[in-house]
Amino acid sequence: MNSPISTACVQRRGVATLAWALALALLLPAADLAAQPVVYPQPGRAIRLMVGLAAGGSLDAQARVIAQKLTEQTGVQVIVENKPGASMMLAASEVARAAPDGYTLLFAPSSTFAQNPHTLNSVPYDPFKDFTPITLASRGPLVLTLHSSVPASNVRELVAWARAHPGQLSFASFGVGTSSHLYAEAFAKAAGIDMVHVPYKGTADAARDLLEGRVQAYFDAAPTAIINEKTGKIRIIGVAAPVRNPFIPNVPTISEQGVAGIDLTSWIAVVGPARLPPELVARINAMFVQALSSAPVREAIAKGAYEAVSSTPAELNAEMRSAYERWGAMVRQIGFQKQ
Fold first, then answer.
1. Mean pLDDT of the chain
2. Which listed CATH number (3.40.50.300, 3.40.190.10, 3.40.30.10, 2.40.50.140) goes with 142-257?
3. Which pairs with CB-CB distance under 8 Å and at least 24 residues apart come from 118-122?
4. Domain ranges of the chain
5. What is each CA distance from 223 to 58, 215, 248, 324, in whole angstroms?
6. CA-CA distance, 118 to 331, in Å (whole number)?
7. Class of the CATH-defined domain 47-140+266-334
8. What is the pLDDT of residue 4?
9. How far apart are CA 190 and CA 5, in angstroms?
10. Identical fold between 47-140+266-334 and 142-257
11. What sign does the dihedral 295-301-304-309 (CA atoms) show?
12. Between 179 and 309, whose confidence is greater?
């Protein structure tokens, strides 16, 4: 038979044990959560890949082929959602406001992060504070195209002709403050020539009027330029990048032809909203890298004269900051005023 003292001791030990058990019960969920691998994506919940241009263009086409491969890899539907408007800022803003759960991502060109903040008065996001870098997806520089009526087959001959005919060379752009406009202004300043700017509301209108000879020069995306050159109405005379484009290897860069500084490579990247957990970023990065390394995706992107690439989140962050600084320097150099 137990004494009152021993019974009391057992009761106290029982209370203490219960207290420790309760404390552990409170701590275990957090510890278990940290130890568990990220379950992403979840079956039955779709991933939205936002694109800031209308369906049918090269940006949309790349997003769709990647989304299809991601769906095949994961068994979870990846949906491309087009939200055009405001220099692609509508789509970017929606992703910036999204929950940091990995289910709303942005597929966007470098201009969204590196150019818009320098050329537009009102940008509703911070390119570094409001997004989490995930990976690069592709590269595809602009190229300098020329109507066949202009008697020049390379950049040096174009510069010589423009100097001999001041104010007679007109160049198209797909909008004031767009990359095609800024490249042309920077080219004119670096080459010491005068050109007349003719802005359009989009790439299709600018390319059409170049083909018709209503304008003489245009910094166009490589895929469109390569197709249009086959008509014999235009020619590609320079690549606006540090290295030649592998899809038109015989066309030298503009810097190779004596005009320096027009070598800002355009790229497309995948980002998420700010505050994505590191382990989730790693998981999403791995998914995209796997998709981008697959032969069908690489071949599909190559058909559009882009090169499929991938990166770590840190490498993309460095690329974004470098492009931001270089675009800022170009905008200041040509004296462009925010619109």
1. 88
2. 3.40.190.10
3. 118/324, 118/327, 118/328, 118/331, 118/336, 118/338, 119/177, 119/182, 119/331, 119/336, 119/338, 119/339, 120/87, 120/89, 120/177, 120/338, 120/339, 121/338, 121/339
4. 47-140+266-334, 142-257
5. 8, 20, 10, 24
6. 7
7. alpha beta
8. 45
9. 96
10. yes
11. negative
12. 309
User: In Å, how far are 57, 147, 222, 246, 304 from 231, measured between CA atoms?
Assistant: 20, 11, 15, 21, 17
Q: Give the confidence band of 325 by pLDDT, cuts at 50, 70, 90.
A: very high
Q: Coil, strand, or helix at residue 91?
A: helix
Tell the residue number behind the tokens 């995948």, with chain if given. Answer: 270
What secondary structure, in 3-state letters, does 3-71 show? CHHHHHHHHHHHHHHHHHHHHHHHHHHHHHHHHCCCCCCCCCCCEEEEECCCCCCHHHHHHHHHHHHHH
Span between the terminal Cα atoms of the chain, in Å: 92
Q: Which pair of structure tokens corresponds to residue 223?
A: 């895929």
pTM greater than the 0.70 cutoff: yes
Residue 180: which of 205, 215, 143 has the closest Cα?
Answer: 143
Cβ-contact 311, 110 below 8 angstroms = no
Cα dihedral 282, 283, 286, 290 in deg (nearest 10): -170
